[in-house]
TrEMBL record:
Subunit structure: Homodimer.
Entry GO CC: cytoplasm
Gene: cryl1
Highest taxon of the lineage: Eukaryota
One protein family per Pfam: 3HCDH
Protein's name according to its UniProt entry: L-gulonate 3-dehydrogenase
Primary location recorded for the protein, binned into one broad class: cytoplasm
Entry similarity comment: Belongs to the 3-hydroxyacyl-CoA dehydrogenase family.
EC id: 1.1.1.45
Sequence ranges assigned to domain 3-hydroxyacyl-CoA dehydrogenase C-terminal in this UniProt record: 192-261
A Gene Ontology molecular function term of the record: L-gulonate 3-dehydrogenase activity
Organism of provenance: Danio rerio
Amino acid sequence: MSSLKEKIITVVGSGLIGRSWAMVFLSGGYKVKLYDNKPGQASGAIAEIRKQLEELQQAKMLRGNLSAAEQLSRLSSHEDLQQALDGAFFVQESVFEDLEAKQSVFHAVEELVSESVILSSSTSCLMPSNVFSQVQNRTRCIVSHPVNPPYYVRLVELVPHPETLPAVMEVAYSLMTDVGQAPVRLRKEIDGFALNRVQYAIIAESWRLVQDGVISVKDIDLVMSEGLGMRYAFIGPIETMHLNAPEGMKDYLQRYSEGMKRVLNTFGPVPDFSGEPAARVIKEICELIPGKQEHLSARRERRDQLLMGLAKLKE
């Protein structure tokens, strides 16, 4: 095991994302300290992680080269922040999506770690310049935005603060690659990052098509799951364009750019996701998947099982 993996990663926050990060880092052989300021939360999270790792091992879906027991031996829980941070070279904040809460965490963490420790946030939509505004040394700050659930969906968006050093991006990229994630580097911060901006564009047009009576909720979801999603699971939209014309991208643009512009100019305004259209979407989706917790939980479990299989296939 490399000397790097003898170092420590501290995960601050033991909720769903914090637990997922811990599992990802453990799968790469790193030592992980899991911190939560609520008594019993971190130790309870370890019990849940143990259950998940043992189930993954039984299903032969455990990531990494270590057994579940070996991974768990590298995990500890803490309620004292100083103790949790001791020896860490990388801190992954995973508290709930609230700007003041995240700012408070990093203000406290910075006072307890050396200048060389990288401070990383799991935020999905808050700008790095806001998240790290109370940090004095912002050159070592970065957003590492995972996709839920991170253990099965491996993309991580690395988003720099305007002052982040290139070397910090390199360390974060190497770490995420080493633990089996698929990191992408944004060259500058932008609201929504890349994944959510693309996702919101798809959501908006899907919503407009349902709202305007063009297609049903069931069928627009099939457009993605049985159409676009089939190829997007393996190649992205730019490569799709490149492969969809006999002579590649230049040929594709010559053939289709006018049609794309014509269609794009018919797109309506951003939906407000409320009122009668929202009521109709809610009614249709709840007819397909009732909104009660047992139905949603079963559907999420199905999603995760399918994602596990897809992740294995992509390997």
